[in-house]
Description:
It is elongated, with a radius of gyration of 9 Å. It is mostly helical. It is 88% helix and 0% strand. α1 packs across α2 (11-25).
Amino acid sequence: MADLMDLKGRPYNVALQIAANIIQNL
């Protein structure tokens, strides 16, 4: 999971990606 690696440097960016994934699932 590349997202987990990004959590160390860009937690805000990862949060946006997770939010985007949730929106797509809707």
